[in-house]
Write a structure and sequence with these properties.
It is a single chain. The radius of gyration is 18 Å and the shape is flat. Helix content is 74%, strand content 0%. By secondary structure, it is mostly helical. α1 runs antiparallel to α2, α2 packs antiparallel against α4 (77-91) and α8 packs antiparallel against α9 (216-239).
Length: 240
């Protein structure tokens, strides 16, 4: 129940921050919400993300809402993690009047929920070391998802497309890996596909914008993710 309330806190805080960003953007005469292709994408995808989130939460995740008040309620964590990913999409686009500190606060609550779930599954995992290494890797991986920022480089249109696709695919990867944590299947999250996509996608995004702006945050956590993935893979092979 406590774990689910942390997830709900993530939902509430992130939704509130994203909603205030949109409301203030529409109210700000200096902001052209639909003025450019980039603006249309980030504001449009943010609105769609929040709308889809509300539909999923209220129509599909009633068991989760019930679990907040009724102990031992069975929760469909597959649908819940899809919902987690859907609202996360809104946080991965940079709209005007964004408040990053509040966004990070919401992500922090989700991470706490993942930690609680990992601790709960620790005794039955069969491999505590790999279980906790998987969690650390997942946290690093989540931080390596690029936020879609506007660029003014020569091939800005192509850059925005690559940036958006990379972000969406990695959000989907994060939602899947999170599901494995909540489903008690997180002893080994070191799959090849998510990390390869992160390396290729992030590398292209970082390289294309390198002269304009070095996104050190994504770079640091991409490197950390790769290092953690290698360490986890080695531990996994040694255990075998």
């Amino acid at each position: 129940m406590v774990m689910n309330w942390f997830i709900m806190g993530y939902f509430i805080i992130l939704f509130a921050e994203r909603a205030q960003s949109l409301i203030r953007s529409f109210a700000d005469s200096n902001v052209s919400v639909w003025g450019s292709g980039f603006s249309r994408y980030v504001n449009g995808i943010c609105i769609l993300s929040l709308a889809a989130f509300l539909i999923l939460l209220l129509a599909i995740n009633r068991d989760f809402l019930k679990s907040l008040f009724v102990k031992d309620t069975a929760v469909n964590y597959k649908m819940l993690c899809i919902t987690i990913g859907v609202i996360l999409i809104s946080g991965m686009v940079h709209t005007e009047h964004t408040i990053p500190a509040i966004q990070f606060g919401s992500y922090g609550l989700l991470i706490v929920a993942l930690v609680i779930c990992t601790a709960k599954n620790n005794a039955s995992s069969g491999n505590s070391l790999l279980l906790w290494m998987s969690l650390v890797y997942l946290i690093f991986f989540s931080m390596a998802i690029p936020v879609v920022y506007e660029s003014e480089i020569k091939n800005a249109g192509l850059f925005h497309i690559i940036e958006a696709v990379t972000s969406l695919v990695l959000v989907a990867g994060f939602a899947y890996l999170s599901y494995r944590v909540f489903a008690g299947q997180a002893v080994n999250l070191f799959f090849i596909c998510p990390i390869v996509v992160a390396i290729i996608g992030d590398a292209i995004v970082l390289a294309m914008r390198w002269k304009e702006y070095v996104n050190s945050f994504v770079l640091i956590f991409l490197v950390a993710s790769v290092v953690m993935w290698i360490a986890g893979f080695i531990v996994k092979m040694v255990k075998k």
